[in-house]
Write a structure and sequence with these properties.
Blueprint (H helix, E strand, L loop, with lengths): L101 H40 L1
């Protein structure tokens, strides 16, 4: 109920356009004041799990002081010098590639280039003939 005694419908978009902090319903989700006293069971306010402010979430004891932020990953120790992972199967060495005939490759490339240019020329001639036919029909009718 509202303070005026009017019951409002619970809608998912209710209060979306209000500025942040304008609604007392947002107080539950606000971060605590860092200068304020730590929460305790005697204060009457309970924390939800996962809000990141209690000592238990920071890895400490419940009710203890909270950690001062993210301290980074735990330290790691490097492996001993010269350490390698164990080898279970030895792979075969790569085989030699066959030699290439450069003269034959050049001849094949030239033949392919001639075919490509020939197909392009035929396509161009066909398109030019079609363009001439379409233009002649347009001029003969008009």
């Amino acid at each position: 109920m509202d303070p005026g005694g009017v019951t409002t419908a619970l809608v998912a978009s209710d209060g979306v356009t209000t500025p942040s902090g304008a609604s007392p319903d947002d107080d539950y989700w606000r971060r605590p004041d860092p200068a304020g006293p730590p929460d305790s069971p005697a204060s009457g306010r309970q924390r939800s799990p996962g809000d990141g402010t209690s000592g238990e979430d920071a890895g400490g004891v419940p009710g203890g002081p909270a950690a001062a932020g993210y301290t980074g990953p735990p330290p790691t120790s490097p492996p001993p010098p010269g350490w390698r992972p164990p080898v279970h199967i030895q792979g075969t060495p790569p085989r030699r590639l066959p030699p290439q005939d450069m003269a034959a490759l050049d001849a094949d490339e030239q033949r392919a280039q001639r075919v490509t240019w020939g197909m392009g020329a035929v396509t161009g001639v066909v398109l030019l003939v079609l363009l001439c036919l379409l233009c002649s029909r347009a001029f003969l009718r008009g």
